[in-house]
Design a protein that fits this description.
- The protein is built from 5 helices and 11 strands; from the N terminus they run ββαββαββαββββαβα.
- It is an alpha+beta fold and 223 residues long.
- It is elongated, with a radius of gyration of 27 Å.
């Protein structure tokens, strides 16, 4: 990851085949915005004391890599991270549809520039000058290929999706992030398959026993 701006952010959301979510955010910046990065790190520690935080650096940038773990997509959604929230009339956030063999998940997100950037202590010219040189990517790693996605880039047979969110931060453009994917319930699938095998075996056994009895009856009748 490289760029010549004042900061760069990678937000990586990895979803395992059991539904667990690992969110890794790497926030790096030039030394003159170190206080802003430090404040962001302190806010995360305050709100998510179990987050794993370690220093990170790349080129002339320094900052932090922040990792948070959630038992399920539902638990992740319940934390109401701003980027993943529903906005009435604009986007639906994270939606879950539970099924027997699999659960279906839909992310319908809208990324917009934070209005706070227009506060009086920042001129828009300065803000846009900084943002125009910066990088902000959202990466979602799925256990299975997405059923649908509007990702800017896709790799690993449709399981790794990447969106470039910088345009939404630079000129105030809005950016939609949409993806639908499934997480299969392997335990239920195996249990159902095993039950079907038992039923089929029972049917075959009963049929064979019936044929054996019929043959026995015919043999007795022929004596």
């Amino acid at each position: 990851m490289s760029c010549a701006g004042c900061f760069q952010v990678d937000s990586n959301l990895k979803i395992d085949d059991n539904g667990a979510v690992i969110m890794k955010n790497k926030i790096l910046g030039e030394p003159y915005i170190a206080s802003i990065i430090e404040k962001s790190k302190d806010n995360i520690i305050k709100n998510y004391p179990n987050a794993k935080i370690k220093p990170a650096s790349e080129g002339g940038y320094t900052g932090y890599e922040i990792e948070m773990f959630f038992q399920s997509v539902e638990e992740f959604a319940a934390n109401n991270f701003e980027m993943f929230q529903a906005r009435p009339g604009k986007c639906n956030g994270i939606q879950v549809s539970n099924g027997w063999f699999y659960n279906s998940y839909t992310f319908d997100l809208l990324i917009e520039r934070d209005k706070d950037i227009e506060r009086e202590d920042f001129s828009m010219a300065l803000a846009q000058s900084l943002l125009a040189q910066s990088k902000f990517d959202l990466i979602i790693e799925l256990p299975n290929a997405a059923e649908f996605s509007n990702a800017d880039y896709m790799s690993n047979d449709g399981t790794v999706l990447r969106w470039n969110l910088a345009p939404a931060l630079i000129r105030g453009q809005s950016k939609t992030v949409q993806v639908n994917f499934r997480i299969y319930n392997n335990v239920r699938i195996a249990a159902t398959f095993f039950l079907v095998l038992i039923i089929v075996a029972g049917i075959i056994y009963n049929l064979s026993q019936a044929k054996f009895r019929d043959k026995g009856n015919r043999d007795i009748g022929n004596q």
